[in-house]
């Protein structure tokens, strides 16, 4: 059951509401990202979690200027939610706030592997990108679909698990690269 208070909390602090759903770093599956959407009134809060492998193609600590440049480009791309998750023009959505960044993972198997380059590169360490967005939409009911340009921007991404909470309840979807459109007609 979703009540009004929960929705308000979602808009104020989306990461609190979804904390119980959050996967621990290192537990993610490469190719799979997660997008949480909370809609109340004209405000839409989105929270994205994506493996470093999907976004920049590596999860080790940036070691070269090229690595660091990839991270910078990725953060810039992730800071433009409407270019990743394309909403119908009729909804009249604008970005109120946007933040994106890399969350460093920790070694899971103890200090023994801390200096083992091979282990680091082969998966002892996982990093994720996290982003949070707040949109304002003149007419959210006009959102009958979301086009996941996300897959064009990030060629390694394969699937996004979507959780949407609105005044009509909570729904879950999977959007895949092969069919990158989430049909929401009648759902908002
Ligand atoms: Zn990983």
Quick structural overview:
This protein has helices at 4-12, 14-17, 52-55, 65-78, 81-84, 117-124, 150-153, and strands at residues 32-40, 43-51, 85-86, 93-103, 128-137, 145-148, 159-166, 169-176, 181-183.
Task: Report what the structure shows.
Residues 103-123 are annotated as: Disordered. Residues 104-123 have a biased composition (Basic and acidic residues). A hairpin with a 2-residue loop joins strand 7 and strand 8 (169-176). It is globular, with a radius of gyration of 17 Å. The protein has helices spanning 4-12, 14-17, 52-55, 65-78, 81-84, 117-124, 150-153, and strands at 32-40, 43-51, 85-86, 93-103, 128-137, 145-148, 159-166, 169-176, 181-183. It has one domain. With 188 residues, it is an alpha+beta fold. Mean pLDDT is 84; it is low at 12-23 and 107-123. The structure holds zinc ion.
């Amino acid at each position: 059951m979703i009540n009004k208070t929960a929705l308000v909390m979602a808009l104020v602090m989306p990461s609190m509401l979804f904390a119980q759903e959050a996967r621990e770093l290192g537990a993610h599956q490469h190719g799979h990202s997660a997008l949480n959407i909370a809609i109340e009134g004209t405000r839409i809060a989105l929270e994205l979690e994506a493996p470093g492998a999907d976004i920049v193609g590596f999860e080790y600590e940036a070691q070269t200027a090229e690595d660091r440049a990839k991270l910078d480009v990725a953060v810039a791309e992730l800071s433009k939610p409407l270019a990743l998750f394309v909403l119908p023009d009729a909804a009249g959505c604008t970005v109120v706030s946007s933040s994106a960044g890399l969350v460093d993972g920790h070694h899971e198997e103890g200090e023994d592997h801390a200096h083992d380059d091979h282990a680091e590169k082969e998966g002892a360490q996982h990093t994720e990108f996290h982003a949070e967005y707040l949109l304002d939409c003149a007419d959210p009911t006009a959102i009958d679909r979301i086009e996941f340009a996300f897959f064009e921007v990030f060629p390694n991404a394969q699937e996004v698990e979507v959780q949407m909470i609105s005044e009509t309840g909570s729904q879950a979807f999977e959007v895949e690269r092969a069919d990158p459109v989430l049909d929401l007609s009648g759902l908002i």
